[in-house]
Amino acid sequence: MKKILFLILIVGAISANAAPFVVSDPTAQTVTHCGVKIDSLTAVDSPVASDTTGKYCKYDLSGLAAGTHIIKATYVNIDPTWGRIESIFSSPLSLTKPEVQIAPSGLVLKP
């Protein structure tokens, strides 16, 4: 029983420390995806998230390299008749992901 409780607590702690996300304002439009463009890379499609306020872009930044980045997004609707219908890009979001810290050195035991 203690092992099961321990696993439940660990899973909860891991999910509570999720990576940061870029999130847009909600929209009432019929959209199926968000196009997310980071720096000068090609935009990638990400499924839209939704809640009671509408649909919105939510993109996980866990794989983002350290440094300064510019992120823009579009709303995309994949329509069976008209194909890909995409908005213009959003205003850019500029952010800086900090560098990984250097590990401590000189560890010793002291009485």
Task: Report what the structure shows.
The protein has one helix at 2-16; strands at residues 21-23, 33-38, 44-47, 49-51, 54-56, 58-60, 67-79, 83-86, 93-97. With 111 residues, the chain is mainly β. Strand 2 and strand 3 form a beta hairpin. It is elongated, with a radius of gyration of 20 Å. It starts with a helix and ends in a 14-residue tail after the last strand.
CA radius of gyration is 20 Å
Low-confidence stretches: 2-7, 11-15
Question: How many domains is the backbone divided into?
Answer: 1
CATH class: Mainly Beta
Distinct helical segment count: 1
Query: How much helicity do the residues have?
Result: 10-25%
At CATH level 3, the topology is Immunoglobulin-like
Describe the main β-sheet briefly.
Answer: 5 strands, antiparallel
**Mean pLDDT over the residues:** 86
CATH architecture: Sandwich
What quaternary form is this?
single chain
Beta-strand share of residues: 35-45%
Q: By helix and strand content, what is the structural category? A: mainly beta
- Characterize the overall form: elongated
Distance between the termini: 38 Å
Order of helices and strands: HEEEEEEEEE
> How many strands in all?
9
